[in-house]
Write a structure and sequence with these properties.
The protein has 133 residues and is of the alpha+beta class. The chain contains four helices and five strands; from the N terminus they run αββαββαβα. The chain has helices at residues 10-14, 39-49, 74-83, 106-131, and strands spanning 15-22, 25-32, 57-62, 68-70, 87-94.
């Protein structure tokens, strides 16, 4: 075995790395995939790590197919955690009282689509640069 290759430990296999974006701020942390807890605990954790305890949020994530999906209950929270590979990318937005409290709002959908397009473009450029080496 090559000395640069790593064999993942059981501990790292059970951890889910989370990258959370709120405004221009990013936060990274990990969760135990086998004990994700409840959505309301996760929601409180997001408010804590972003230091926004009194801000109501819309939480969305990019799934393995690139679809932008909401996390707003235990079921879709557990689905997001169980399918994250290797990273769970979260997009947070302050709830807008002028829109219904879900991720189907035009503003949030446009925001997530723009972010996702930028991520895809960056990956494409990086792959082209690697291919030209």
């Amino acid at each position: 075995m090559n000395k640069n290759q790593r064999v993942p430990s059981n501990r790292s296999l059970s951890a889910v790395e989370v990258k959370s974006k709120f405004g221009a701020e990013f936060r990274r942390f990990s969760l135990d995939r086998s004990k994700p807890g409840r959505f309301d605990e996760f929601y409180g954790l997001l408010q804590h790590v972003h230091r926004i305890p009194n801000v109501e949020l819309l939480v969305g994530y990019a799934d393995v197919h690139g679809d932008l999906l909401p996390i707003n209950n235990d079921d879709n929270y557990h689905k997001a955690i169980s399918t994250a590979s290797p990273l769970l990318r979260l997009f947070l937005q302050r709830k807008d009282p002028g829109f219904p409290p879900d991720l189907s709002t035009p503003h949030f959908t446009l925001l997530l689509s723009t972010i996702w397009s930028q991520l895809k473009r960056r990956c494409s450029v990086q792959m082209q640069q690697i291919g030209s080496l």
